[in-house]
From TrEMBL:
KW Glycoprotein (keyword) present: no
Domain Extensin-like C-terminal: 78-252
Name the record gives this protein: Extensin-like C-terminal domain-containing protein
Organism: Aquamicrobium ahrensii
Superkingdom in the source lineage: Bacteria
Lineage per the UniProt record: Bacteria, Pseudomonadati, Pseudomonadota, Alphaproteobacteria, Hyphomicrobiales
Amino acid sequence: MRSLATLAALTAAAGVSACNTGSVFDLQPAVDVGTTSTVQPGVGMQALVPSNPYMTAAYPRFDRPLSSPGQLPQEEVDCRKELKKLRVSYTDLAPINDGGQCGIAHPVKVTAIGNVEMKPAATLTCAMAASFASWTRNELSAAARWRYFSGVRSIRQGSSYSCRKIRGEGVLSEHGKGNALDVMAIELNNGKVVDVRKPGLFAFRERGLLNTVRADGCSYFTTVLGPGYNYDHRDHFHFDIKNRKSGYRACR
């Protein structure tokens, strides 16, 4: 097996960038919960995937930085101005097209929101990045200071962009459009790690924090799902900005 250094050298020679992630690989899950195998578009090789895709990636993803940022539509330019106001650290990526409906026309890779690190970096649409950054700054950070007298050090996410369908429905997940992000745990500056999984009976502060940020998420996202909704969401919060003509918001 070739070493990472060798792979990095080959990648650089091919003009591919790791986009400031600190690694050649951006590990993202490729399929929805329960799937056991997948084929990466354009590669033609099968990779085994664990029953919980939030734990391990099916294959490494190589992201390419955007070579001409000036070509962005005005709404994308305005969105990036909003990201800067929110102190979001991000990199513009080249368009992602994985065939069918999967892809992002103007993706960004978010590495941090102010002093809050994103682990690992999240590939999203700019609109989703802005919504998530607003929620993080206005709700999550404020709730952590109130409950724990501590700021937030990092957000551990399990899935951002990922070309997959919703299990049992055959409908493309919002992850396949870059409009969704799954939060697994929240690490505080005091060293406390708040796991999103349903806390114990006497974990009053954890339960209070999670209930607060989950409820407040409905003001920033059109879909908020988490533990208690169904088995697939037992260990994470799912946030997305799905566009529904009726204006309905699914907060469960």
